[in-house]
Predict the structure of tryptophan synthase.
Amino acid sequence: MSGNIELLEDTLARTREEGRAALIAYLPAGFPTVDGSIEAIKAVLDAGADIVEVGLPHSDPVLDGPVIQTADDIALRGGLKIADVLRTVREAHQATGKPVLVMTYWNPVDRYGVDRFAQELADAGGAGCILPDLPVQEADPWREHAAKHGLATVFVVAPAAATPGWPRSPPRAPVSSTRPP
């Protein structure tokens, strides 16, 4: 089976045609339980979210705030495994037909096996992966396997990133120094 990059692209194109932003929800897998997270993710998609990001809990979620850190801790203490995250993706996608992305740090993917993770995510019906700590310049191994399995690669890049080849954010409108009378 191939991943659902086309479904993701079609969903984003449709929302653009409708003149609106896509509503993208984030929920961590395994919180409060695996079954509970699957039901919550399906509910969010059924309630109108266009896309969902399923978080793969990490033992040291340094880029996440205290709410996600707590949810990740509860999921991990509950014994969550990558297989549970993939089951979550599978069941959410099968129930709703909507794009499901996995958001994770690079280390779990690397340790699991890049090709294995990409293949299993595609087999589960995943649309792609968000890897916030994977620099674009170091992403070729993931991008190769993602492309091979029909998965999107979503990078997290600061709007004012000065990385060559990436567009800068538009300049802010000047602030007027005149005061009303």
Remarks:
- The radius of gyration is 18 Å.
